[in-house]
């Protein structure tokens, strides 16, 4: 978990809301200050750019998926946002301020990493006892319920708890901290399917009662796809997709049928649809194209004997990042 600095909070925790009020803004809905604002952010390790000139904002009270292949830059980006590393260039504002060594920002964050380290002499009970020192929204009753759900052995030396139980401890801290901005970086190494489902269920239930911003990095995209409200896809350090999850669902289609019919259909739409993936066997082809099809296009496809199937979030991201990898290799 993150270990925010010492000073008491200077302002109430909670997603920052704009306090500006002008005569004209009284009629309009209040503008909402983003929780995170990143502009031209780059992180280099030597000559290698792990995060490469990215710009994006994070809305309050939203569950984000930060998705991407191994080595895409997800952890590096989270470390920058949580003030655990310095940017090479560009700007980061979290709750309107620079996060590095900034107690006002850090006390509003919780960062659950893939492999959290604890002092050797710790037992799980010590983790939960010390959590309220760091997280002022800590809900001990909620933590108790989660400890039961995940069956965490409270008195076992931390070095003896299983990999999955260690992940469960991180998940419990992340949920019960109720931090206004919570990062989960692949939080469930070793967690079994039942425990992962408990995590998703508890996150959704608690988020409904206590809205906050959650940024979840995971490779299990299908499992979390119903949880995510906004998706950021990062690839080779660049943001490839920054979209509302509902808009993404249905934003690509696989067209299956006789190769020449598929080609004619896809070829006629080149300007509005990008070909993301193609497979063929015998005289048949299956081509995934980006961009939503109109009702007329759907009718034309069906009349031509083509089958149209929606593409899952996971398939879409696999297709998009594979297409990007090919572009990247060509340009390298
Ligand atoms: N301290 C470092 N020194 C050199 N290279 C680094 C360092 N930290 C990260 N990198 C490189 O930066 C790139 C991005 O790493 P990062 O850990 O952010 O990826 P990731 O998207 O979290 O990957 P994964 O899904 O495998 O956890 C990788 O190529 C990694 O090897």
Automatic annotation (TrEMBL):
Signal peptide: none
Keywords: ATP-binding, Nucleotide-binding
MF annotations from Gene Ontology: ATP binding; ATP hydrolysis activity
Database matches in Gene3D superfamilies: P-loop containing nucleotide triphosphate hydrolases
Biased composition, class Pro residues, residue ranges: 1-12
Biased composition (Low complexity): 13-32
Name of the protein: ABC-2 type transport system ATP-binding protein
Highest rank taxon of the organism: Bacteria
Alphabetical list of InterPro entries matching this protein: AAA+_ATPase, ABC_transporter-like_ATP-bd, P-loop_NTPase
Pfam families reported for this sequence: ABC_tran
Disordered as annotated region, ranges: 1-32
ABC transporter domain span: 36-261
Naturally occurring in which organism (per UniProt): Compostimonas suwonensis
């Amino acid at each position: 978990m993150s270990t925010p600095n010492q000073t008491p909070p200077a302002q109430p925790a909670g997603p920052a809301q704009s306090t500006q009020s002008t005569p004209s803004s009284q009629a309009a809905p209040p503008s909402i200050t983003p929780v995170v604002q990143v502009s031209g952010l780059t992180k280099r390790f030597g000559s290698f750019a792990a995060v490469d000139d990215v710009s994006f904002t994070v809305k309050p009270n939203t569950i984000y998926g930060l998705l991407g292949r191994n080595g895409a830059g997800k952890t590096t980006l989270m470390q920058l946002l949580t003030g655990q590393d310095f940017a090479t260039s560009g700007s980061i504002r979290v709750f309107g301020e620079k996060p590095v060594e900034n107690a006002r920002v850090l006390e509003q964050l919780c960062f659950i990493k893939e492999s959290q380290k604890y002092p050797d002499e710790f037992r799980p009970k010590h983790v939960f006892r010390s959590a309220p020192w760091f997280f002022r929204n800590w809900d001990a009753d909620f933590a108790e319920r989660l400890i039961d759900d995940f069956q965490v052995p409270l008195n076992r030396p931390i070095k003896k708890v299983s990999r999955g139980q260690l992940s469960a401890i991180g998940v419990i801290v992340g949920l019960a901290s109720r931090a206004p901005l919570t990062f989960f970086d692949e939080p469930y190494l070793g967690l079994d399917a039942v425990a992962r489902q408990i995590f998703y269920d508890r996150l959704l239930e608690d988020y409904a009662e206590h809205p906050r911003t959650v940024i979840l990095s995971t490779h299990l995209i299908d499992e979390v796809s119903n949880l995510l409200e906004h998706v950021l896809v990062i690839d080779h350090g660049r943001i490839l997709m920054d979209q509302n999850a509902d808009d993404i669902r249905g934003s690509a289609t696989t067209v299956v049928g006789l190769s020449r019919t598929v080609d004619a259909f896809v070829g006629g739409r080149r300007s509005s649809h990008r070909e993301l993936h193609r497979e063929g066997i015998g005289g048949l082809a299956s081509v995934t194209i980006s961009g939503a099809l109109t009702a007329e296009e759907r009718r034309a496809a069906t009349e031509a004997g083509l089958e149209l199937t929606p593409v899952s979030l996971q398939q879409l991201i696999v297709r998009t990042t594979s297409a990007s990898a090919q572009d990247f290799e060509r340009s390298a």
